[in-house]
Amino acid sequence: PDVMPADVSMPVLNGIDALEAMREEGVDIPVVFLTMHNQAGYARRALRAGAAGYVLKLSAPEELVQAIRAALDGGTFVSPSLARAVFDATQREFTDASERIESLTPHQRAIWRLFAEGLSAKEVAKKLDISSRTVESHKYQIMETLGAQSSAELIRLAIRHGIVEP
Asked: What torsion do the CA atoms of 119, 18, 66, 45 make, to the nearest 10 degrees?
């Protein structure tokens, strides 16, 4: 299909998790969510997962058409009734994350950058002339400071905040 409709609430696997799984498998079809979930958190999570649109079922049918057209053109569409809340929440998250990043030491930022570039703890340790244990300790401190739950999330944060290029 040129565009795939989805909903957040689906049997077995929710739509956002399904989209994340599709992206991990390399499926790059634009996905437009048509959903009853009018919370900015759901919309932000869908957009972070790679959704091309997030339209509320309560919205006018024209919004769905606009979202599909935006997806076909490589753009993104969010129902206007949610767009401001999504933008504000994203701005707060970015500001909070930027402040947390600023609290990292230069040494921690260097270790984070090397991890985000794909180096292993052993490779980082060799490059910085420190032990692998020290590198792992710094990595977990960095993850805690940034609120990252996994190495993948640590890499996504590095890309999002310009620490490394995608």
From this structure: -60
DSSP secondary structure, 139-162, as one string: HHHHHHHHT--SHHHHHHHHHHTT
The secondary structure of residue 60, as a DSSP letter, is: -
**What is d(CA 20, CA 88) in angstroms, rounded to the nearest whole number?**
23
pTM over 0.85: no
| CB distance 6 to 33 below 8 Å | yes
Closest to 38 measured CA to CA, from 78, 87, 71 = 78
pLDDT in tens, 115-146: 999 999 999 999 999 999 999 999 999 998 88
- Look up residue 47 and give its two tokens: 């957009």
